[in-house]
Design brief:
The protein is mainly alpha-helical. The chain has helices at about 5-25, 70-75, 80-90, 100-115, 130-140, 155-160, 165, 175-185, 190-205, 210-220, 225-240, 240-255, 260-270, 275-290, 295-305, 310-320, 330-340, 345-360, 365-375, 385-395, 400-410, 415-425, 435-445, 450-465, 470-480, 485-495, 500-510, 515-530, 535-545, 550-565, 570-584. It is about 65% helix and about 0% strand.
């Protein structure tokens, strides 16, 4: 049957309705009463229900029309995925949708900002219309966290946080960034992009443990991404996990041997762990790429000084000093070379005084100045070694280097009771060196605390009877506590196989056991034969001849002591007295 024309049916219906109304008005019959109609209620039987399929409502986003594999690759965000996204989206320039152009530009920007070791060689069409996505990227390049993107999709949540990589000048957006990135990770927990940025945020707030977790997740999705691996190595380094950091750097350099951040971090780690030869190789590799990098020129000089290669170190310092003679590190290293290699303590004191003038609150410079002052007896900037050390101790009462300098200076001044108190404080610090223990033994002997000296020295000797420094302290205490027969046997036992320096010490100590002046002189001369620079033997000979009023001989030995300590005021005073006596 043919379908009825709806228009025609409507006309027929209207005609019938009009006719009926006319007839009704002309001869309307009387109404006949009718019985009331009772309507029953219909109840549906559930078995009669029919299921109607309702189409699923699809949520449309800004990028709903683009290739969804490309979108997913951009949202993952690692270099490999971004290259894939670009290849999937590329087409003839005239047929791009605006959303496709925006996504391509996002992919390129992510590569440029996050993964600079990668390159995008293809031409990307420009975006012509304003939009929140490229707007957020542009804002991040200017150091601004864009709050206007909203949270409509994953990229809107993530892109503003690119500013974490482009700028470090502000921190007022960290809470917002954290909330947005956490929401993004709820949507896509395996996103390298979101995990990396979340790690950067944690690192920025010094939460290195949290940062490591995020970077490890990012690395799981981008094992070959240099920037992700380096970020992980950096966090391991900053959380003092040096071996893990170095291991990650090694894996980076195996594939990218010229990657400078990993070379630089490896140099710092190997220097900190005293692997000087390895460190030097890393620094050389940096300087091959950055020959004018002043920090690494000085770093190399520092390494050469550590290796006692002062000639090459001095050459590097000469070159550097022509361009910057007031650098903190330069002055510290120059003073060290003058002190250790040139043996020009006056020049070293002058250099460190200049450093102290330029950097008066620098702890390392203050300590270096204190050490030079203690060794030379010269006041640096009018301040003594003890005063310089006390300046450090006022801020850091347990600073081992400052305490050690203070003790040594008090010993030089022969202020034994004060030296004992300072040395006792030093010994309570776990990180104090073994040297401080032997100094304390010497101080105890001079301060009249022989029982304490014996207890320490005998314990040390029972634990390390072959250690030369322990043997020396033990012999000093045996003599001071009048254990003559025991010390005589020990000296006789050691002398035949002792080194020259040890022989010099043994002969000097044995001179205190001699029963005649001639025997004393024989031992002291034997001491000087083994080591002509034995200061103790030289000074004792000076005293012997001075007491005998043989001033010319006394001066002969004293002048040698002065040559070893040319800035010791007490020695200079003694020499002046001799000059006066000889001039009469």
């Amino acid at each position: 049957m043919k379908p009825v024309n709806r228009g025609f049916a409507a006309v027929v219906f209207n005609s019938i309705l009009v006719s009926s109304l006319l007839l009704s008005c002309g001869s309307a019959p009387k109404a006949v009463p009718q019985a009331p109609v009772i309507e029953s209620t219909y109840t549906a039987d559930p078995s009669e229900a029919v299921a109607i399929t309702v189409p699923a409502v699809k949520e449309r986003t800004y990028f709903s029309s683009v290739n969804q594999d490309a979108l997913a690759a951009v949202e993952k965000g690692d270099p490999e995925s971004l290259h894939l996204a670009i290849s999937l989206l590329r087409k003839d320039s005239s047929s791009y949708e605006e959303a496709e152009k925006i996504l391509l530009n996002i992919a390129k920007s992510l590569m440029q900002i996050l993964w600079p070791t990668q390159t995008v060689a293809v031409e990307i069409p420009p975006v012509t219309s304003p939009n929140p996505y490229t707007g957020a990227v542009d804002s991040s390049r200017q150091g601004i966290y864009d709050m206007s993107t909203g949270n409509g999709d994953f990229l809107a949540l993530v892109l503003p946080s690119l500013v974490l990589v482009t700028s470090e000048s502000r921190n007022d957006y960290y809470d917002t960034a954290r909330e947005s990135l956490d929401k993004a990770l709820e949507l896509k927990g395996d996103s390298v992009l979101a995990n990396y940025l979340r790690g950067v945020l944690s690192r920025r707030t010094n939460d290195y443990s949290g940062a490591i977790n995020y970077f490890l997740k990012a690395q799981g999705g981008a094992a070959d991404c240099v920037e992700v691996s380096y970020a992980l190595a950096d966090c391991y380094y900053k959380s003092n996990q040096l071996e893990k950091s170095l291991s990650v750097c090694d894996s980076i350099l195996q594939k990218n041997p010229l990657y400078r951040p990993a070379l630089k971090l490896s140099a710092e780690i190997t220097f900190a762990t005293n692997r000087i030869d390895e460190c030097e190789q890393f620094v050389v590799r940096v300087l091959q790429q950055e020959p004018e990098n002043a920090y690494y020129v000085l770093f190399r000089a520092r390494i050469l000084i550590q290796k006692n290669d002062y000639i090459r170190a001095a050459s590097l310092l000469d070159v550097y000093g022509r361009s910057d003679g007031e650098s903190r590190d330069y002055l510290l290293l120059r003073a060290k070379v003058q002190k250790e290699w040139n043996r020009n303590l006056t020049a070293a004191a002058s250099t460190i005084e200049k450093a102290l003038t330029l950097y008066p609150d620098d702890s390392e410079i203050i300590l270096s100045a204190a050490a030079i002052s203690a060794e030379t007896g010269i006041k640096i900037g009018g301040v003594s070694a003890v005063e310089l050390a006390d300046k450090i101790l006022a801020k850091d009462p347990k600073n081992v280097q400052a305490l050690t300098i203070r003790v040594n200076e008090l010993v030089r001044r022969k202020q034994w009771q004060e030296a004992y108190r300072a040395s006792s404080n030093l010994r309570q610090i776990a990180s104090s060196s073994q040297f401080s223990v032997h100094t304390h033994i010497d101080i105890c002997l001079e301060a009249g605390r022989r029982d304490e000296a014996w207890q320490i020295a005998s314990n040390l000797y029972s634990q390390s009877p072959k250690d030369e420094q322990v043997i020396q302290s033990y012999i000093k205490v045996l003599i001071a506590t009048d254990r003559r027969s025991e010390v005589s046997r020990l000296i006789a036992q050691i002398l035949p196989t002792a080194t020259s320096k040890m022989k010099s010490f043994l002969y000097y100590e044995r001179s205190f056991l001699a029963s005649s002046e001639d025997a004393v002189l024989v031992d002291l001369r034997s001491s000087l034969t083994a080591n002509p620079r034995n200061r103790d033997a030289l000074f004792r000979l000076y005293k012997i001849y001075y007491n005998k009023k043989e001033y010319r001989k006394a001066q002969y030995y004293l002048k040698q002591v002065v040559a070893l300590s040319p800035n010791d005021d007490s020695l200079l005073k003694l020499n002046s007295e001799l000059e006066t006596l000889l001039g009469r």
